[in-house]
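TA notes, week 10

Several of you asked for a full example with nothing omitted. So below is the full record: structure tokens for the whole chain, then the designed sequence directly under it. When grading your own attempts, check the secondary structure regions first.
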């Protein structure tokens, strides 16, 4: 059963029963670790969890996030984490904001870290991809622009020079997506050999917890329910998670994890990444301490 929930425990109450571990943080598209917002957020996570927390930069930050092949970005994220001795411990947390959540999940599923990932926090992460250009979901102009995007997004050159193209998921042209996308079909276990799929699933289901934070008025990610692993169905409306083949057939292990009560489906009222200080203190930090 899916539950739309908000944690209500305080970090102080949880700290007594939880051991602090390091947290690796990945920013979203167009952002950078050195920008004041990400710097302050990372500092708050470290102070709140009582352990090392670091925003790990991929390439040069904002430009790389927009222009580099997304699988290359994921591999660079993994290498950056492996190079930081503070993460060479038995357990770590990983957290990503927006597209950074996909990099964080790549760490869970594919990065050869010393130990394991305890908790994964996806803050506005497009886990089932996007199917429209950000901020352009309706109207005749956007309809034309999105049609053009769908025609060219899976070509090799676009996949290589437009980072977000790696998680553009067109449910009406799944063959193009599966054959042309360099990143998301692999991350979501829709593609690859059986052994690789089994390893990814085993790593994902070994999580202690996954928190999926969706923003109710999101104008960046379409559909916003992608942040909860939902997608547009054949009738053009958002499909219930339990009705999707991805969930029913447990491609990645989300069903297994959810049935073990290890997934938190959190809804925040606001536009993309508009979480509050209260959300940090009473939802994000307590989850990382769980």
């Amino acid at each position: 059963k899916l539950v739309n929930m908000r944690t209500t425990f305080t970090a102080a109450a949880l700290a007594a029963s939880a051991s602090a571990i390091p947290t690796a943080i990945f920013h979203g598209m167009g952002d950078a670790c050195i920008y004041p917002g990400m710097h302050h957020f990372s500092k708050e996570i470290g102070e709140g969890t009582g352990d090392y927390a670091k925003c790990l930069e991929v390439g040069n930050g904002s430009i790389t996030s927009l222009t580099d092949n997304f699988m290359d970005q994921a591999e660079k994220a993994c290498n950056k984490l492996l190079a930081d001795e503070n993460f060479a411990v038995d357990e770590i947390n990983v957290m990503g904001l927006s597209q950074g959540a996909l990099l964080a999940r790549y760490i869970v599923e594919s990065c050869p870290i010393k130990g394991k990932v305890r908790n994964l926090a996806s803050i506005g992460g497009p886990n089932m991809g996007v199917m429209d250009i950000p901020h352009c979901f309706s109207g005749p102009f956007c309809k034309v622009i999105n049609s053009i995007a769908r025609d060219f997004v899976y070509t090799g050159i676009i996949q290589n020079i437009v980072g977000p193209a790696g998680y553009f998921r067109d449910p009406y042209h799944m063959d193009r997506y599966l054959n042309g996308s360099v990143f998301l079909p692999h991350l979501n276990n829709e593609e690859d050999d059986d052994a690789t799929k089994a390893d990814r699933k085993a790593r994902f289901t070994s999580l202690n917890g996954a928190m999926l934070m969706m923003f109710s008025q999101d104008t960046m990610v379409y559909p916003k329910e992608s942040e909860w692993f939902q997608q547009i169905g054949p009738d053009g409306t958002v499909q219930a998670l339990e009705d999707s083949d991805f969930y029913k057939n447990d491609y990645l292990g989300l069903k297994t994890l959810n049935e073990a009560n290890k997934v938190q489906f959190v809804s925040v009222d606001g536009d993309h990444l508009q979480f509050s200080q209260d959300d940090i203190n009473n939802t994000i930090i307590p989850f990382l301490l769980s």
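The CA atoms of residues 154 and 180 lie 5 Å apart. Use that as a sanity check on your answer.
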